[in-house]
Write a sequence for this structure.
């Protein structure tokens, strides 16, 4: 998956949540009413498809679409170089 | 070891008897670290003697401001060995809120693993566990203070329907009644019980003492944040057999990551409405699993009733809260305190050895803790919950009698949230509702009208609220300038808000 595809996919998962329909890529999702449960919910959806995992605390430190794209992209590239 | 009858239900005495019976058995597992019953008991003795030198006396309330750790469990035991009660503080709660608890409970000593200077004053000192290492030590000699099992064991703060939070004072015998010789679960020494709840949440009573009073092993979840991958890894690594989750978290993990429960025998779920569909799906995938709905207010010590479900006993259209647990009697009463006709809706009252001693602020006991010989002997707790008995003799939860609600497992009063919003500068009207999303997720939604020409930023409002309220009480969504319809009682018609 290219970084653009990753971005499109993560944005799609976020915007599928009614509370985040209108979220921009830089917006802090906690401002949209996301709770720690929402984070875990999004995380499980994304990781189910990507097949890589990032820690929840890491994801909470970067609470935006852009933050998550960076976190998952880094994990994917780490795995590729390890393989 | 002999325990005399007045001490037979003391938490630390039962623990000491387990330590004497199986000293090399593992009491706590945290990551790669194992602590035996002997080590844990010795460390608790050592810390208890230190606390006595710091001025802790029988009947005191000692605060614990620590992350989930082996030291935190030792601190709880040490406080009990001194004849005192512990008050767990959530370090992520606003300092103002925690200091309010410390003042009300007249706490003189705080045990902490971080800097707690902000909580101290000329009458309150800190025992910093970082400066006073308690592992490993050899202090096998148990303290021998004369403590009664009616004595207070812990204080936990819970949101009240009116006014601020209430500190519930729970005695030793109530902990004993929750986890020893009971009808809804059996803890075996071979069990591995996960401790993942916040120590300030009373499910932790079930986890910690369910393990340690039964000679089982307590497995500590190592982080503050619940991470589903780490959660599954910890369960797998330590072969966890029993764990507790709130419904919101249970629903999420069962629906999207049910492999996490692969080797688990028993999952106890409690604190809110549970989806029967998710329970049934989980039983389909895990034929050997037992799921228990544990219902009950903190004031009747974690669980009042419980309902066991398995492949042989699946839920129908809803999940009952079940039957009274051992040591508790439930009473379903009308407004005149008379039992309702079986099957009719009434308010749930509980009596028996699970009933707490009352609130720290005894002025709040009125209407909640009552004495009425016509209902039962001893103190009776009035839950404010409406229930009815179904044809199988199981209780079903109907709703709250007042406007107190549960959002994501946290009990709170909408009036309290509303009052805090109205307290903000420039807010002239405020209403708060709970919005149930299709996913089953719940959100706290606030509607505000501001003084003409004024603007407030949502992030500023949330920041302001965070100074006085825990995160779970802060509205998820805030809407401005909506027309609020008022009903005949002068109350804002909340149903009309949902259409905005």
């Amino acid at each position: 998956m290219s970084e653009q595809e990753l971005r499109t996919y993560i944005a799609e998962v976020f915007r599928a949540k009614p509370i985040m329909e209108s979220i921009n890529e830089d917006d802090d999702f906690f401002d949209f009413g996301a709770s720690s449960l929402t984070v875990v919910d999004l995380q499980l959806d994304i990781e189910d498809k990507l097949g890589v995992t990032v820690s929840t605390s890491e994801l909470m430190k970067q609470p935006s679409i852009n933050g998550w794209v960076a976190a998952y992209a880094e994990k994917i590239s780490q795995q590729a170089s390890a393989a | 070891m002999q325990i005399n009858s007045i001490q037979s239900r003391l938490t630390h005495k039962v623990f000491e008897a387990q330590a004497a019976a199986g000293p090399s058995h593992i009491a706590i597992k945290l990551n790669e670290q194992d602590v035996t019953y002997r080590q844990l008991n010795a460390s608790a003795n050592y810390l208890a003697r230190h606390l006595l030198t710091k001025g802790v006396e029988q009947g005191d309330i000692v605060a614990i401001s620590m992350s989930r750790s082996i030291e935190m469990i030792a601190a709880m035991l040490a406080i009990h060995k001194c004849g005192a009660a512990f008050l767990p503080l959530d370090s992520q709660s606003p300092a103002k809120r925690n200091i309010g608890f410390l003042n009300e409970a007249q706490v003189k000593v705080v045990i902490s693993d971080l800097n707690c200077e902000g909580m101290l004053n000329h009458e309150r000192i800190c025992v910093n566990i970082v400066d006073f290492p308690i592992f490993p030590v050899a202090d096998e000699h148990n303290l021998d203070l004369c403590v009664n099992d009616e004595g207070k064991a812990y204080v936990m703060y819970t949101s009240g329907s009116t006014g601020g939070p209430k500190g519930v004072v729970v005695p030793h015998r109530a902990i004993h009644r929750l986890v020893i010789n009971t009808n809804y679960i059996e803890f075996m020494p071979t069990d591995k019980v996960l401790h993942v709840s916040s120590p300030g949440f009373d499910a932790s009573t079930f986890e910690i003492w369910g393990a340690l009073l039964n000679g089982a092993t307590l497995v500590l979840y190592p982080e503050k944040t619940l991470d589903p991958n780490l959660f599954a890894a910890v369960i797998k690594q330590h072969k966890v057999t029993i764990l507790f989750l709130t419904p919101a978290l249970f629903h999420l993990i069962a629906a999207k990551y049910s492999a996490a429960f692969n080797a688990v025998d028993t999952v106890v779920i409690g604190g809110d409405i549970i989806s029967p569909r998710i329970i049934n799906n989980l039983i389909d995938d895990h034929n050997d699993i037992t799921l228990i709905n544990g219902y009950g207010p903190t004031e009747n010590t974690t669980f009042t009733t419980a309902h066991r479900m398995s492949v042989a006993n699946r839920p129908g259209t809803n999940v009952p809260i079940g039957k009274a647990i051992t040591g508790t009697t439930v009473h379903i009463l009308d407004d005149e305190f008379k039992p309702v006709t079986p099957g009719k809706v009434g308010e749930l009252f509980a009596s028996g050895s699970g009933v707490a001693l009352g609130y720290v602020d005894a002025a709040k006991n009125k209407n909640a803790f009552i004495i009425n010989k016509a209902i039962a002997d001893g103190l009776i707790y009035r839950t404010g919950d409406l229930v009815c008995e179904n044809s199988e003799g199981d209780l079903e939860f109907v709703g709250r009698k007042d406007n107190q609600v549960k959002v994501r497992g946290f009990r709170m009063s909408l009036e309290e949230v509303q009052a805090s919003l109205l307290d903000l500068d420039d807010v002239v009207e405020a209403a708060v509702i709970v919005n149930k999303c299709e996913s089953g997720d719940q959100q706290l939604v606030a509607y505000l009208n501001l003084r003409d020409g004024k603007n407030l930023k949502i992030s500023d409002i949330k920041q302001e609220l965070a100074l006085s309220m825990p995160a779970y009480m802060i509205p998820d969504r805030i809407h401005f300038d909506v027309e609020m319809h008022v009903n005949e009682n002068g109350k804002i018609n909340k149903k009309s808000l949902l259409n905005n």
